[in-house]
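Late entry, evening session. Most of the bench is empty. Finally got around to the prediction I had been postponing all week. Sequence below, unchanged from the version circulated by S.P.
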Amino acid sequence: MSRRDKIAFIFPGQGSQYVGMGKDFYDNFRVSKKVFDEASEVLEMDLKSICFGGSKEELLKTENTQPAILATCIAILRALESEGLDCDYTAGLSLGEYTSLVMSQSLSFCDAVRLVRKRGKFMQEAVPLGVGGMAAIIGLQREKIPLVLEATKNYGVVEVANYNSPEQIVLSGELKGLKIACEEAIKQGARKAIQLPVSAPFHSSLLVSAGEKLKQELSKVEVMESKKKLISNVDGKPILTKEEIKPKLVDQVSSSVLWQQSVEYMINDGVNIFVEIGPGKSLTGFVKRIGKAMGKEVTTLNVSDINSFKETVEYFKLKKSGDE
């Protein structure tokens, strides 16, 4: 690799899941098979069946979705690592931060998969079904966001959950208020306002109680110093000591996800190759738009199936041979 290259491995969050994810890795790589088998054993449930051939409804249950995505991402990561691929930086969107913590050896996979199953359960329990949700706002100028939030103030809690890219923010809160927010966003010039298929208002103050329950669970696990530069969702900056990890994971449940700011930090620090590892391609799109808005050239790669895996491995082999 060129000395000038800095690589980040980035991991998706909830919403990227689909039935069948990870199966080709389970079938083709011993290291990937081991991940799914270990997760199923730790959780005392057949997680691989939920991932590979279960119903969409079963996979969509938050307490299943979170360990399923984590296991899929780690299974793909282990296959990449078996080919000698590595990174300088890592970050994950929301749930994806747990994958980053496993990747950087701050958290064991077994502890992480247990934690995210409970995290999913706590997040779902914090707000009754049918009360809260989320909406993506696309193409709205940032300075108009306060006007959108102002319009909702008599209709319950509505807050910014994610700063995903210059083009997209996600709002979270009570459904009555979200409906008003979507209408106001369009009035203020947004191209689209889309209600998301999620069952709870993630990353809003409505989930503070879930964070408190998670705190209890985190007190039972050991965290280690990170072996990589790991960027936190909560402030878009590197985690410098292991003591920061648990409080930030608690805050993350009810705080905005600063994804755009996290990517900007990495780009400003010289990261020029981003590899999204796991189901879906949403982070790849966000990184491209963030890089473009900054006027910086970045390479984005996505590894979600065997074909994209082969392409990525080949890309790094060619890059390495070109540098030698």
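Two things to note before I forget:
The CA atoms of residues 64 and 109 lie 16 Å apart.
The chain has a mean pLDDT of 95.
Will write this up properly tomorrow.
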